[in-house]
Amino acid sequence: MNILLSPTTGKLIVLGERYHYLFDDKAGLEKIMGATFKKELAGSFGKFTVDPDDTISGSYRIQTRNALSPEQGEEARRLGFSQLPDGRFDIAATIGGTRFESVALAKDMDASALNQNYVVTVDMIGDARAMPEPSTRRANETAENVLLILAAPVLIVMLLFSSPCLICR
Predict the structure, then answer these.
(1) How far is CA 40 from the centre of its chain?
(2) Distance from first CA to last CA of the chain, Å, rounded?
(3) Which of 42, 73, 154, 156 is at 20 to 30 A from 20, Cα to Cα?
């Protein structure tokens, strides 16, 4: 999974194997990922849900692993972080956007490496859409139809020129 941040459009893009997700970056993740204390950040994701119309929403939390220097603390506050009693900083936000199937959304964007791998679970709300049939199944059905079309004239000729009763003998 790749995560792209677009400073020009204010979008967060997550490229998955089957789906791509386009989120509005209202919390300023692009600025947070450029912070001087970026290496101190650790994140977690809440539950994400996808509606039948492919609208997705969810939440995340980003915390610093340790207390920050006074200068970094000021930077964290400017970025929307709150200081915890133990001296660390955190920010929690909800994000929303749209899910797409295999669409080239990554044009003119830079990939941003994260400090660790994350697992995100996405639940479907409402009735799941019908899954597309595998292309091999469609190919097999097409081949069967072609064989039936080719065999039909042979069967008609056989019936016309055979004896009147095939099983009577």
Answers:
(1) 27
(2) 70
(3) 42
- At 63-78, the pLDDT tens digits run 999 999 999 999 999 9
Residue 104 has what pLDDT? 45
Q: Is 100 exposed, middle or buried (0-12, 13-18, 19+ CB in 10 A)?
A: middle
Helix (H) or strand (E) holding 169: none
- Residue-level pLDDT at 21: 84
| Under 8 Å between Cβ of 76 and 68 | yes
CA distance 112 to 30: 9
Q: How far is CA 126 from CA 100, 120, 138, in A?
A: 17, 20, 28
> Mind giving me the DSSP string for 30-69?
HHHTTSTTGGGEEEEE--EEE-TTSEEEEEEEEEESSPPP
